[in-house]
Amino acid sequence: MADTDTDTDVVKVQAFGHTLAIEVPDPASAGRVRGQWARCLADGSADATVDSVRYGAEFDLDFAEYTVVSSVTLRLIQLCAGRLMMLHAAGVADPGTGAVIALVAESGTGKTTAAQRLCTTGFGYVTDETVAVREDGQVLPFPKPLSVIIEGEDHKQQHGPDELGLLAAPEHPDLRLHRIVLLERDGAPGDPPRVEQLALLDAILALIPQLSFLTKMADPLLTLTRHVRSCGGIHRLRYTEIQECADTLRKLVADDPAEVAEVEHLPPTGTPARGQVGSYHRGAYADAVRIDDEILLLIEDLPIRCSGLGATVWDATAQPRTAEELVDICIEMHGEHPDADALVRAAVEELCRYGVLAQG
């Protein structure tokens, strides 16, 4: 619709329960933007517009449309902080069941190519950028334009999923997170795709850098591990060309989720207790879980893995402990060692350096 007061066309798009207005300078540009965003255009039932994104008419066409896509995506992620688990991933869905595979990768390492290739070979297009998951496991689609690399150029062109012939995903209520897969394109020509399941704690540590606003969520590590366990853990896909992986991924979707390690939630219990001068107590942390014999802590937005002596010391410092007490506790748990005193004190020093422990 045109805004005659400002001579600007407005294209409204919606995703994740929010509606944004893209302010476009002329009808021709508005037509291109509507075509690119055809699967995200707001309908009559859309929420009220909460924000607007400006089309940079001062830039060349390709860069202006690229900045629109980037700005819309970033703003939607910001609006959903703390409400949704958001994976930096492409999302493809089984068209029959709505089971979604989140294909996780860093920027520039294959998400868009994966979405484009797989969604012309039988998978439905959910997104190529942000897989947003509700607490109950439902996935909110974001079928945005795809940023396609132009050979010989340093920028990308925006193409809508309709233009690229990508199969549409089932309607939203049927979309559920079913698998989380880390992409690793490291195969040699002719190598078949390989899928491996990662140990739970290793997998979570690999996944955390590819999450948006994790620490804004309530019980962030508990929420994350619940989603991961419901997917049967996290898999790594090693491959050469993603289009060769369609059958491998279809089999992964068809299989029932595997049993994975149990998780014990260790939430913060308020202000850490302080003891006598020279004693040690737990530092402040956002959330923690125990997986097998290890503890994963979230201190501000930094994940810390505590194993062996580190886990024992952290467990013991729910109340203040002196260094001598911690040495005795570690000997009781792990047995005698000629260098026990030095080893425990070194572990305590390292935990203090990362804020896991604090001195009274």
Helix content: 25-40%
Domain count, please report it.
Answer: 3
Unreliable segments of 5+ consecutive residues: 1-6
Largest sheet geometry = 9 strands, mixed
Top CATH class of the largest domain: Alpha Beta
Shape: elongated
The number of helical runs is: 9
> What is the fold named in CATH at topology level of the largest domain?
Rossmann fold
**N- to C-terminal separation?**
64 Å
Radius of gyration computed on alpha carbons: 24 Å
Strand content: 25-35%
What is the count of β-strands? 21
Average pLDDT for all residues:
92
Question: Would you mind describing this structure in some detail?
Answer:
This protein has three domains: 78 residues, no CATH class; 177 residues, Rossmann fold, CATH 3.40.50; 96 residues, Outer Surface Protein A, domain 3. The longest helix is centred in the N-terminal third of the chain and has 19 residues. With 360 residues, it is an alpha+beta fold. The N terminus is likely disordered. 28% of the residues lie in helices and 28% in strands. Strands 5, 6, 7, 8, 9, 12, 13, 14 and 15 form a nine-stranded mixed beta sheet that branches. Strands 1-2-3-4 form a four-stranded mixed beta sheet. It has a four-stranded antiparallel beta sheet with strand order 16-18-19-20. Helix 7 crosses helix 8 and helix 8 packs across helix 9.
